[in-house]
Specification:
About 30% of the residues lie in helices and about 25% in strands. By secondary structure, the protein is α/β, with parallel strands linked by helices. Helix 4 packs antiparallel against helix 10.
Length: about 575
């Protein structure tokens, strides 16, 4: 009888193996602490976050039992929810002396991802922001591996190495997931936040991991999860940010991988082929879920042949229901964050709107610049408008409005520079606009969609014009410092954030500059302290820069207001 049952089982297995199998991979990236479906800056519901993505994940998993769930990093930093928790881990108390309730002892994102059954997560650069104590705490709480094939521990280092890859058998198919982290992490992060971790060339690390997998594991599918942008415009073939964004390089130089799911650049790519490699990027903040379907056919002598692969993005919408169990996990952390955000800071003498903040000088940006110049004692400061939908009401200003003005955990650096560095940085920023002449200046769009808005920096401490009648690279006119033309060799102390100091988004002029001062706290915390002491936000901009010609500026104003209205309706 036992032999009969065994024979039947073997026969059934043979039949099953004779049929094609579809393996579904679901992927998120750059969640940045977006757990609760809310925009903390406006205190309005938002169609994003892991609680909503959870519903899409579970629906897709129900369609195919042969599935994996993965993430591409930048997970434990970004929203006030995570910021308040990470501050408690780092200092023992909440920001501004906020006393946490008992029981908030686990990272909320790890709790939610454990609940959803994530299989792996690639380490992102922002995992290091709060230091190694916080990173290790979150990592130890994850019931899934944190991956990074190109992150090593220096000889004698005490840090725990990351696994280069993860292998799982799904529906009889062996799937390998290799993690790659942007190698630019040391350009943004304090050395003490990195310890003995060292970042290796990604292509070499990927080749090594693939070779090891081929020898030891013999996987049927090799998938890369990269916390790094594409680095190439696939439509124009123009090279974009090199060094930081390496996915195109990975796909072209290690073509034996089957697909790459990536993040970091906060863009979205439903799926394109680079040679035979499928590349996909879901939207950041849990705004969309990537789904990759791999079809495998059995080989006559055993094993599988990859017969097809396809991808699509599943967007979160206002109608997407948030998963109740994930909301329950998030609730105490969310309520604590709300308490912090409602702390009063100062007053605003009038209503401040940021919709035109990238088109004309506004008090919203000057509110950041004043803080940077005050604490840094720099000659010139750079700042960007992260979110043009930010609105500061007249009257009481709370931490919520300050956090909306500066949502990222960047520190402030002062570097040694000169007039040429300032000019080059402003020219790079001006790529955010398109050139125009005559009638063309009255026609939309004049915004360059290939340049992300938060990579458009404005300068304070100098006066200048951005002339869109000029070609790219030669648009900054009448650049003056202390009411005189700024000489290219004039030595200056320049204030920039820690992200810019790494040369990201084309700001290569800052790479290698001597850092003569760095803040011991995030810029957002400096803003809270500054305005708590002064009690009032600026009511007027000083008008130190403007866009010309006037026709172009008016067109950009219409474009910006239309975009703000669209964002408001979402």
């Amino acid at each position: 009888m036992r032999n009969y049952i065994l024979a039947a089982l073997l026969a059934f297995a043979g039949v099953a193996r004779s049929q094609p199998v579809v393996v579904t991979v679901l992927a998120t990236t750059d969640l940045h602490g977006n757990l609760y479906p809310i925009d903390y800056g406006t205190d309005r519901p938002a169609a994003r976050g892991l609680a909503m993505i959870a519903t899409l994940i579970r629906a897709a998993e129900a369609e195919n039992p042969n599935h994996l769930l993965i993430d591409c990093g930048d997970t434990i930093q970004g929203t006030p929810l995570e910021y308040v928790y990470q501050t408690i881990v780092r200092t023992g108390t909440g920001p501004m002396g906020l006393k946490p309730p008992a029981g908030l002892s686990h990272d909320p994102m790890m709790l939610a991802m454990n609940q959803l059954g994530y299989d792996s997560m690639t380490v992102g650069n922002h995992e290091y922001n709060y230091g190694l104590k916080n990173l290790d705490r979150a990592r130890s709480e994850a019931r899934f591996p944190w991956l990074s094939a190109n992150t090593a521990v220096a000889p004698g280092g005490k840090e725990r190495p990351f696994a280069p890859y993860f292998v799982k058998v799904v529906g009889g198919v062996k799937v390998a997931i290799i993690g790659i982290t942007t190698p630019a992490v040391p350009t943004w992060e304090r050395p003490e936040n990195l310890g003995s971790y060292r970042f290796l060339p990604p292509v070499e690390a990927l080749r090594k991991a693939v070779a090891e997998l081929r020898t030891k594991e013999h996987p049927d599918i090799i998938l890369v999860t990269a916390h790094s942008g594409l680095g190439r415009n696939l439509d124009t073939n123009a090279e974009e940010s090199t060094g930081e964004d390496v996915v195109y390089e990975l796909a072209t130089q290690v073509p034996e991988v089957d697909a790459i799911v990536f993040g970091h650049s906060h863009r979205e790519l439903e799926g394109r082929s680079i040679g035979k490699v499928l590349v996909v990027q879901p939207k950041n903040w849990g705004i969309s879920l990537a789904r990759l379907d791999f079809t495998l056919e059995p080989k006559a002598g055993g094993g599988w042949t990859l017969a097809g692969k396809k991808s699509r993005l599943i967007p979160v919408t206002a109608e997407t229901a948030a998963a109740p169990d994930i909301l329950e996990i998030a609730k105490p952390y969310h309520e604590l964050a709300e308490r912090h955000l409602d702390e009063p800071v100062a007053t605003s003498p009038r209503e401040l709107d940021s919709a035109l903040g990238r088109v004309e000088d506004t008090p919203v940006i000057d509110a950041i610049q004043q803080v940077e110049l005050y604490y840094s004692k720099a000659d010139v400061s750079f700042a960007s408008l992260f979110n043009p939908s930010v609105h500061v009401p007249k009257g009481r200003v709370t931490v919520r409005q300050i956090a909306a003005l500066y949502p990222y955990d960047n520190e402030l650096y002062v570097i040694e520079g000169d007039g040429k560095m300032v000019k080059d940085a402003l020219e790079n920023s001006a790529r955010y606009f398109l050139s125009c002449e005559g009638e063309r200046c009255t026609q939309q769009p004049l915004t360059n969609r290939n340049v992300l808005g938060y990579n458009y920096d404005m300068a304070e401490g100098v006066q200048y014009e951005v002339d869109l009648s000029r070609p790219e690279g030669d648009r900054i006119r009448n650049l003056r410092w202390q009411s005189k033309p700024l000489a290219s060799d004039r030595k200056l102390r320049i204030a920039i954030n820690s992200y810019r100091a790494g040369g990201s988004a084309g700001f290569s002029m800052f790479i290698g500059a001597k850092v003569v001062w760095r803040s011991q706290e995030e810029i957002r915390d400096m803003m809270v302290r500054y305005y708590t002491e002064r009690k009032s936000l600026p009511s007027q901009a000083d008008g130190n820069w403007r866009v010309i010609p006037d026709a172009a500026r008016r067109t950009l104003e219409k474009e910006a207001l239309a975009e703000a209205a669209r964002q408001h309706l979402q």
